[in-house]
Every structure is written in C-alpha cells, then in structure tokens.
Amino acid sequence: MWKDWGIAQKAACYFVVVYVTISSLWVLGSDYIFSKNVNYLPVWMSTGKGLLFIIISSFLFYNLLQKMIRDIVKAERYYRLIVENVSDLILVIDRSGKIEYISPSLQVIIGYLPEDYIGKYLDEILSEEEITKLQGSNIQNAHLVPITFSIKNNNGRNVLLEGKAVFLPGRQDTDRFIVLVQDITERNKAENKLLESEERYRKLVEYSPETTLIHINRKVVYANRAGLELVGAQHMEQVIGRDVLDFIYHTDLNQAVNRMIKVQEGVSEINEYRILRLDGSIIYVEILAFQTTYEGEEAVQVIIRDISKRKKAEEQVQFLAYYDSLTGIANRNLLYEHLREAVVRNESKGLTFAVLFLDLDRFKVINDTYGHSFGDLLLQQVSKRLMNTLGEEGEIFRYGGDEFIIVLNTNEADKVSQTAEKIICTLASPFVIKDRQMFISTSIGISVFPKDGENVEALIQNSDIAMYNAKENGKNTYQYYNSSLNLTHQRRMELENGLRNAIQNHELSLHYQPQVNLDSNQVIGLEALIRWNHPEYGLISPTEFIPLAEETGLIFSIGKWVLKTACSQCKQWIEMGLPIENVAVNVSPLQFREKSFVTSVHKIIEETGIPPRYLELEITESVTSNVDLALTIMREIKALGVHLAIDDFGTGYSSLNYLRHFPIDKLKIDKSFIDEINQHKDGEVIVQTIIELGNRLRFQVIAEGVENKEQVTFLRENKCYLAQGYYYSRPLPAEKIKDLLMMVE
Ligand code: C2E
Ligand code: MG
Ligand code: MG
Question: How far is CA 399 from CA 136, 246, 403, in A?
C-alpha cells in the first residue's frame, strides 16, 4: 500500500510523524522539567521562535491534509468511475456472504439492478451447488483465487461467470471478499462448440477407415487406428517417432523423397506406393500428402488408402488379358505384343528369329472322348512339359485350343530343328491323367523372320501353313515353311469352303466296294465309300476331306447324308432282290460320340425302311478308348438291330481285354497288315493272330485291301473267309454295283 501512495501523501505522512514526535517530545520534555523541578518550559518553547514553528507547521500540516483529502476523493472518484463502467462484475461480500457492493454491470449481465442484490446473501442468489463450489475454492486461505460460478439471470437462464476472488482480511467481522468476474457464457459456448467440433473431427479421423498420419520432418507424430492396422502395428509406440520413409518399399523411396519436396512447395497430388508393413509384407497404397500444422508446428498430413485389392484385381485383369487362365502361360495377346517387339528389335539390328506353330495331333478326339475337363488336364500337363523343355531357350504362348506358339531367338536351322525335335520327343512319353495313360503327339510348323514373313501376321500364318503340311506328312513331325506350301494351304482353304456347300451342290456321291465270301466267291456285302467331285479339283479322296470335315464339324451333316443315301440305296437293292447281306457305312469317331447319333440312325432306318440287320456301322478302334461310353453307345446301336464292325483293326490302341465285352460283329484287318502277306513274316504273324483272335471271340473277320491271289490263299489257309479289295473290285458307283450283283446272280 505504501508503495502505491503519491509523493504528497508520503510527505504528509512524514510530516505527521515528525510533528507528532516533536509534539510528544515537548509534552514529555515538560513532564520531565516539572518532575525535576527545573525550568518548567524548554528554552526554545519559551521563545517566539517556537511559537512560530508551531504555527507554520500547523499551517503546512493543514494544507497537506487538505491536499491528501482532495487526492483521496479524486482517486475514489476515479475508482468509482472505473468500477461502475467496467463490463466486469465486481462484488464486495462480507464474511457472512452478504453482498455489500455490486457493480452496475450487473444490470447488463444478469438483468437486475444492484439494489436488488445489495444486502442479500449469496445463498439467496446462487444455487446450492454453486455455493458448495465456492466454499471449496478456499478463498480465505489464499490471497487470490480463480473462481467460476453460474448465476440465473432475469430470464431464468444460467450466466457463467469467471474471474477471481480477492480476500481482504480485517479485524473480526471486517473480512471482505472482492469478487471480480466476467460473463463468459458466450465464450464458453463458443469454446464448447470448438471443443465439440474438435472432438468430432478427432473421432472422425481416429475411426476413419482411411489412414491418416502426420509427420514433422519425416518423424511420425500421429497415426490413427487405421494407420496402425495398415502397417500391422499393435501399439502407437511402434509407429510414433519413426521415420515415415521406413514404411516405404525401397524401390519407391526415390519417388517418395521427390514427392516430399513437392509437398513442401505446396503441391498435393495422389500417388501410388508400396508400403512395407512391420511383418515384412507389402501392400499397395494411394497417398495424398499436404501441409498442415500440428500442435503449433509445421507438419505434413498424409492420407493413405489401401488399394491392394484394386491392384490385385488389376493384376488379375492384366493376367487374364495376357495369360491363359488354364495353363498359366502367356496368351495370344502377349504373343502379338512380343512378336511386334521382336520384329522391331530384330529389324533394326538385322537379326532373325523363328516362330514354331504347334498343334496337338488327335486332341479333338481325346477331348470328345474323355470330356473337356480331361482335355484341360492334358493341356495343362502338355504346357508344363513344353515350358520345362524350352527353359530359357524361347518364349511359349498358348495360341488357342490345342495350339501353342514358341518364339525362338535364333534362326540357326540346327538349333531350331533341335528344339522342334526336343519338343516332339518330350511329348512322346505317355501322360497320366486321371489314372489313365494317354499318348499325344504334335505337328510343328516353322517360319523364320524376315525370310518367311516380315510382320507378325505373316509369320504366324506361314508357320500355321507349315504346321498343316506337317500334319499331312503324317503328323508327329515338323516342317519349315516354304512358298510352295502356300498352294497346299490355299487348296485346303478352298476345300474347306467348298465342303460347306458340297451336299447342296450334289457334289458328294457314294461308291460301293464289294465284300466277298472266299468260300463261295459271292458278294455278301458292300462298303459305302464317299466321293467328292470338286468342280475345280475333280475327284477328291476322303482321306483328304474327311479330316477337314471333322475339324470343321461338317462331318455331322455329311455323315447323316452318307447314312441316309447308303440305307435308301440298300433298300432299293433289297427290293430289287439283289443278293446282298449288308451295307457297311463308315462312322467318324466324332459322329459316334455325338449325343443324338443313335437317334438319328434309328430315324434314318425308319425313314428309308431298310431292315436294320442289313446295316453295318464301321467304327475305328479309337472310339473304344472310353470304354464305358463306347459300350453304352454300342449296346444302343445293337438294340436297334444294326451290326457293328471295327475298321482298320490293329492300328489303334484298343484294349484286348475290353474287346471281348464289346458287342461287335466284325473285325476288319487293316490293309497295312494284308500288304505284308508274302512280304514280311512278322506281318503275316499279325494277320494270323488277328484272325485267330477274331474267330475265338466269335467275331467275323474280314481282310481289307486284298490285291492279289496270294493274299487270298493265305487268308483262306488261315481261316479268314471274308475279303474286300481291288483284287475283287474297286469301289464302284451304285449303278455299276447293280450290274455286278445281277451278274453274280
Ligand atoms: P476305309 O474305311 O478303311 O476304306 C477302305 C479304303 O481303302 C478306301 O479308300 C478304299 O477305296 C481303299 N481300298 C479298298 N481296297 C483297296 C485295295 O485293294 N488297295 C488299295 N490301295 N486301297 C483299297 P477310300 O475310299 O479312299 O477311303 C479312305 C478312307 O476314308 C476310308 O478308309 C474311311 O476311313 C474314310 N471314309 C470313306 N468314306 C467315308 C465316309 O462315308 N464316312 C467316313 N467317316 N469316312 C469315310
Ligand atoms: Mg471302312
Ligand atoms: Mg479300313
């Protein structure tokens, strides 16, 4: 308090002290004199000087006192002016809680006049809860205490007041509390609003499925739950404080560092990275980073989205687009890209490369016989073998169905031929699929860049042409492309197109070859053999166009046509009374396995009116490879009353064990064995064995391709009594057969 006083106040104070001291001394001094009985007045008092001193000092004292009072009044006015005009609320409360003073701002803050509150006790205007709170703030023991309390205004609304309470200790009942508070209701509301929105934002970020991470100078200072999960952390400590780059996959580090510089420059864009998780696994993410502040410091906020699933799907799409889902090897799309690159690369360097076109032989038959899932397994195994054999020597692609293309980075004929031979050889050993042994071979056509084609299309097309030639050359072999093959290919294309309209154009006809009983020398049957009279190429052999018909699916309509024509022809001959016992019709394995085959045979029998026992169907051994299916179909055919013969017997892989169970009537010994008679002992032995086997199993045995008397003699000697061949007759048109049979009669 002393230090707050002005100079005048201090001087006045000194004066009063001096004056009082001197006056006291004077009084004490006079007492002393009286008691000692000496001069009863001090010397200086008895003089006029002393009197003057008292008068002057009293005057000064009066003036000073006047000034002091004026100062005090002035100060009091100032303070009152301040107190009554401040927006804060000022209360003076006595020890009992009675309000002695309250500033006029009360009216603005609470809506009441100060007079309404002065003289009231705190517990009359505050709630019990607020009173307890104030009591708890321990005002008496501290000089200055921050306080907060709420009070109801004249509208009944709570007004929140915050400030401090000053304790002014006095004697006994004169303790006072001065309370200075501000209305913080609005501020509090705003603060609460801010807190709420902050909390909302915090929760939003915390529980967001998207990862949010904040780093300051690369050190992670915040990561939400999704962030922990993303990197595979269990606790915050595993992430906080770490360098963000620790989580970036090493090949993406440069990109990440460059991006960080950009972010500092204020550029924010989405980038893809791979993140290295704590367990060492890698995930793909999309990252958006931007500048922010975190606890007052400049920071970078990073939003991370896990795009692994999308990446996986993209990879899957990529895989499907470029790889074959069955075999896992590259597909046609990748082949074209690879070849395009190879053409450009080799062209500029003046280098060459070879394209090998592989087509599996007889795959269609296997697929149709054992079903597509079986065929798929075979393709998978074939692909595996091809890849193992090829190794680093070249690239392999699945071109389609049973077609593969190999690109070799060499044109050295030796090396290319070696690879082709190696492939043929590797496929030669049997495959085991579903416990079944399977043999397959491949035909390979080869074209060389740039000699056989300067672009992708030409290279593929010419290797394809060469492959067809390899097939025509007996399959299981390879063939280099040369321009003369184009003619063959062209012919093939023309035949394929021509065959489509051959039936409608009446270009197809049937020739019949007699089957003779060697005992009686009588014609007992006729084999119907198809002929195609091509408008340009003339007569075309069925050995050329039947495989084409099988490949194109035309075999079904052609087969029906043959069956119908042969049956109605036979019916005519029967009606004419010609002595034939049967007409044999060749059936392709594809036809045989077609679901509606038996029904269509039945229908044709009914339509043509041929007695079923006159009809004999010639099937090949290959149909018996699927024993169950073959048995079912054979039984259905037999149930119609139709006969069954196995054509070209001895050339296929039929199981002798099953043979006895098949409802077969006839075995036709293949011409290749008959050719051996009188030529090779081994061949003769085979013929003898087949005859013996057939006789024992009670099948009829017929020899086909009999061309000379010696063969007939040999057959007779070995108890084969049926034969067919040029020795007796070539296949003849129906009219000629009629004449022949009439002659026999
Ligand atoms: P395949 O069923 O074994 O018919 C016998 C083939 O041998 C016929 O040839 C016939 O002309 C020929 N041939 C008969 N005797 C002799 C002979 O003494 N010496 C010689 N060198 N050959 C003889 P083709 O007519 O050219 O038929 C070839 C093959 O075409 C047939 O062999 C058969 O597998 C198939 N084929 C013919 N017609 C049809 C048909 O209508 N449908 C089906 N799916 N295939 C048919
Ligand atoms: Mg035949
Ligand atoms: Mg034959």
Answer: 90, 45, 5
